[in-house]
Design brief:
This protein is α+β, with helices and mostly antiparallel strands. 52% of the residues lie in helices and 9% in strands. α9 packs across α11. It comes from Melghirimyces profundicolus.
């Protein structure tokens, strides 16, 4: 759901009007249940009134400033990550035309050392003109704090081999310009994503539910921040308990490649798996509760109280 409703809801709340925010998907589902498909403002208002009469809605509560900031950061991080992945694909497509064997030199094509060396020597001819000794010196200067000189010699030798074995392609100046420009964009995206992640973690740690969500096995910092920003405050769920199952497999076993129709949906090698992680949401604070199943595997749950 977008945030276009915020100016209207803020104005109404400032004038002491109770506001109920209805998800557009819920309103659309209610409208589709009618046979006649009429699209007018009067009919839309009637459908919303009918939906409010049939369903149980509670007035929306204003969100905390920290949650609003966290939601803005997590959604911006997702958009930047999507753009970064698309940029990486475009960069690889251009690099295949300019320096096809260069991706095999470093283990990570998008690390800082790899991008800086490619920025200085974007073509095989530039690498051959520089020579192996110069490459060793520059690689070692970029990684002197974390890598040895022997590692720099190995990477320089790989660069020379990749340049010698790369096919001779008709490379124009525009290809070199594109490679350098896209490398600069990649570096900026990496720095921007790192700054957003740092800010996300700083904002999320000020919310007391963050540590409880972070304690769930398999949930990292970014996932916990995203869950918290989208779900909101835990007390929105009310007094009735809500069970949210999270299936995980024991580390000693692995999921089989093929399963037979007779096996259950949660089985491995014909043995039924139990629920290994359950989130039990009741109030605000999280407390772990452990239990053991018949198979001897632990089932964890988090209780908000």
């Amino acid at each position: 759901m977008s945030d276009y409703h915020l100016p209207v809801t803020t104005f109404l709340e400032q004038h002491s009007y109770p506001v109920v925010v209805v998800n557009p998907l819920t309103a659309q589902w209610s409208k589709r249940s009618h046979l006649r498909k009429v699209k007018t403002d009067a009919q839309d208002a009637y459908h919303l009134a009918e939906l409010f009469y049939k369903e149980e809605f509670s007035p929306s509560q204003p969100k905390q400033d920290s949650l609003s900031r966290l939601r803005l950061l997590t959604r911006h991080h997702e958009a930047m990550t999507t753009a970064y992945v698309q940029l990486k694909l475009q960069f690889q497509a251009i690099l295949d035309q300019v320096f096809p064997l260069y991706p095999g030199v470093f283990s990570d094509l998008f690390c800082k050392t790899c991008l800086k060396m490619l920025h200085r020597y974007p073509t095989p001819s530039a690498v051959l003109e520089a020579g192996e000794e110069k490459l060793i010196t520059e690689i070692h200067s970029l990684t002197a704090c974390s890598r040895s000189e022997a590692w720099a010699q190995e990477k320089a030798k790989k660069m020379m081999t990749a340049a010698q074995n790369s096919p001779v392609l008709a490379i124009c100046e525009s290809h070199r310009v594109l490679v350098r420009e896209m490398m600069e964009l990649l570096s900026r995206h990496q720095e921007h994503l790192k700054q957003i992640e740092t800010e996300m973690e700083a904002v999320a740690r000020d919310i007391h539910e963050y540590d409880s969500i972070r304690s769930i096995p398999g949930v990292g910092d970014k996932i916990a921040a995203t869950i918290l920003s989208e779900v909101g405050e835990v007390d929105r769920f009310g007094p009735s308990p809500d069970w949210i199952p999270v299936f995980t497999f024991p580390e000693s076993l692995s999921r089989p490649q093929t399963t037979s129709p007779n096996e259950g949906p949660n089985s491995c090698e014909g043995q039924c798996f139990s629920l290994s992680n359950v989130v039990f949401v009741e109030n605000e604070t999280a407390v772990y509760a452990n239990s053991t199943t018949e198979k001897g595997w632990k089932a964890n749950c988090i209780r908000w109280q």
